[in-house]
Structures are given as C-alpha cells and as structure tokens.
Amino acid sequence: MLSESPISARPRLHRETGGRAAKLYCSKFTKLLLYLSVVNGLLCGIPTNKAMTTTEQTPTKVIDHKPTNTGAAFGSEVSAHMLMGVYRDGQWQEQAIVPFGPLMLSPTNLALHYGQSIFEGMKAFRMKDGNISVFRIDKHHERLNKTLERMSMPQMPFSYFDQAIRELVAVDADYVPDLNEGSLYIRPFVFATGEGFRVRVSDTYQFVIFTGPVGDYYQKPVRVKVETEFIRAAEGGPGFAKCAGNYAAAFYPTQKANREGFDNLLWTDSRQHEFIEESGTMNAMFVIDEVLITPSLTGTILDGITRDSLIRLARDMGVKVQQRKISYKELIAGAEQGLLQEAFGVGTAAVVSPIELIQVHGQDYPLPPYSDNSLWFRLKQRLTQIRTGYEADMYGWNTVLDV
Ligand SMILES: Cc1ncc(COP(=O)(O)O)c(C=O)c1O
C-alpha cells in the first residue's frame, strides 16, 4: 500500500499549486519513492536493482501534457495524479490527490491472495461549450456498492465517491481530450489492505482513482466466437459484480479465442451453454427483424450502464426493445433467414462496437454490411451527442463540472 503519509485532508493539493509546481512535486515525490524502494530493498536483503526494476516495469506511461491525439493503445497512458482514500475503523476516511505512482504492498496483502479487489470504469467528456461532463456517476456508484457488498467489502457513501470523482477530474481537466477526440477514462478501484495469510475478510481497504485519456477501444468491427465449453459466470456467483476475479477467470478462454483470430468471446449460460450472456467487457445486443434484443439481467452478466442508456435511447427512437433470453440457435436461424440484421457490443470502454462475424461450433455467420443508418451507429451518435451537449440531457446523465 502506498504509505499513508502523502494523504492529507487537502484533496486539491495539485490544483492549487498549478501545473509546473505539480510537475516539480511529482518528480520530487518519484525520487522519494525510488529512495524508499532502495532503502526497502536493502532492508529486506533484496538486491537494490531488483527493487527498482519493479518500479521501472510499470507498463503504463504517465503523461504530463494534454493529449494531442488519442492514438495510443487503450489503457496505456495515465494522467499524472491519483486520488487515494482509506477505509479503517469502520469508516471511509480522508481522501487526497497525490502524484500517480507505485503502491507498496505487503506480500501478505489479503487482496493479492484472496481477491478482494473490485473496480469501476467511467468516462469524462469535453462538451461543445468547452465544459467537462462525467457520465452517470450515480449509476456507477450504485453498481460499485453492489459489487462491494458481494465481495464482503464496505460500501461507500455516494458523497464520498462523487466528491472523489469531481475532485480528481477537476485536477486532471487538462487531460480531457478535445471535443470528439476521445475521452478521459476514470478508473476507481478498491482493494483489501489487511495482512496475514489466514483466509479472512479484510477490515481495512484502499480506494484509488486514476484517469487516462483514451480513444477507440476497437478500431474496426469485431469477430466473436460463441463459447460453449468454458463459462464466465453461473447463477448465484459474482457474474454481476465488477470484481477482479471475473476478469482473470475469463482470460484463459479469451486468449484461446484470440489465438484463433477472434477479438472476443460471446459467453453462454452455465447450464445449457446455449443462451448468450455478454462479450468480454461489453454487453451484447442484436437486431433481429427490426427488434433490438439484449440478454436480460439474470445476475450472471454485468448490469452495463451503456446497455441501460442505449435501451432508453432506442425506446425513445421508437425501436422495439426486448430484454430476454436469446440462444445462439436463434442467432443462427436469424442469420439463415436473413433476419439477423445487426450484432454489437456496448460498454464504457468500447462504447458501441459492431460485430462483423459470429462463429458457432466452427461455422461462420457474417453479419450484413453496416451503414450510417444501422441502429448501432445511430445509437452511438445519440449517446455521443448527449454526452457532448449537442442534445438535451433528458435523463440527467451528465455531471457538468465547474472547472
Ligand atoms: C464484463 C463486462 N460486461 C459489460 C460491461 C459494460 O458495462 P458498462 O456499460 O457499464 O461499461 C463491462 C464494462 O464495464 C464489463 O467489464
């Protein structure tokens, strides 16, 4: 865990000090961390260069400038600050914004061994008038608390979460890409900081948020394979939760599909391996005979905020929407009869990503070509227009920041 010393009751530290001073502070802070890791390495009997290598291998690049384009690989660049908060003595304590940097963890950290580690994924957008909006903070907070509860972790008051997001995005305002040039991804996460190797629920936690400018997750329509051997989640499990373990368990089958040339899997249910669940980090949507169909929320898929938003927008546009079970057999029948018009994944990172091909049991089912009139395209356009202020925010989804 990052030592608690940089935490103070003054979360706007860097904003007040201004860009250049923040940079200076950042480099001093980094030097301090390096110094501490050297001392730590010596004290622990670890060769110094090893302790430092761990720091150097951080795969993300901390950038100290406004992005001029968002062509960097999604998730590879982060802004120079992060917000930290702690849970101890039965409550969420003070928050502070500090330079982005490594966390120091005990090897007996409970999150590393028993998996109490959860996250959220949100975005801030540059609006047409230059303001910054954050999308659906309340809904993300609601889901964060459901996840925390399922992982036996302490829930967080809305005000604590909301303030943290607002403060950090305000400090990182310069990192929000220009209008229609991308967005600022916001990654809040919480993990156990209790120590000891006995299996137990931690009684202390670290809350961290960092941000990073991002562009498109997928550059082109995706190819997916219907997975009928492995499962992502089963009834009664944590499939609805945004916990780290769900992602780790999905890696093996997903990597296998990647090697076979697919971008992602379409997971199926755990009992019959037949009903579509979701795809990677996206909820799945299909258009069959002019009806938008998406798997219902049965507790095994994530209650996607993009999914929820697009269902509302589609209904507003007069599109018939069904939330129900949909089997791959229905997709095949639809493809064979020429009724399967569209398939797409929806999520904060991927926004709306059209699917060009679905494979089931080795058989390819290509989707018809898409156009600007395709529903996925029109939905994406409306969502973008609301987020950027070109269309009225009818449902109060945007939190417009005072920066
Ligand atoms: C497993 C999974 N399903 C669906 C989604 C889409 O959810 P949202 O629209 O809230 O980003 C995500 C991304 O967060 C995800 O990780």
Automatic annotation (TrEMBL):
Pathway: Amino-acid biosynthesis; L-isoleucine biosynthesis; L-isoleucine from 2-oxobutanoate: step 4/4; Amino-acid biosynthesis; L-leucine biosynthesis; L-leucine from 3-methyl-2-oxobutanoate: step 4/4; Amino-acid biosynthesis; L-valine biosynthesis; L-valine from pyruvate: step 4/4. SUPFAM superfamilies: D-aminoacid aminotransferase-like PLP-dependent enzymes. It holds the Pfam family Aminotran_4. It is an enzyme of class 2 (transferase). Its EC number is 2.6.1.42. Keywords: Amino-acid biosynthesis, Aminotransferase, Branched-chain amino acid biosynthesis, Pyridoxal phosphate, Transferase. It catalyses: L-leucine + 2-oxoglutarate = 4-methyl-2-oxopentanoate + L-glutamate; L-valine + 2-oxoglutarate = 3-methyl-2-oxobutanoate + L-glutamate; L-isoleucine + 2-oxoglutarate = (S)-3-methyl-2-oxopentanoate + L-glutamate. The keyword tRNA-binding does not apply. InterPro entries: Aminotrans_IV, Aminotransferase-like, B_amino_transII, BCAT-like_C, BCAT-like_N, BCAT_family. Its cofactor is pyridoxal 5'-phosphate. Gene3D superfamilies: 3.30.470.10, D-amino Acid Aminotransferase, subunit A, domain 2. One of its GO terms (molecular function) is transaminase activity. The keyword tRNA-binding does not apply. PANTHER family: BRANCHED-CHAIN-AMINO-ACID AMINOTRANSFERASE (PTHR11825:SF44), SUBGROUP IIII AMINOTRANSFERASE (PTHR11825). Belongs to the class-IV pyridoxal-phosphate-dependent aminotransferase family. Acts on leucine, isoleucine and valine. This is branched-chain-amino-acid transaminase.
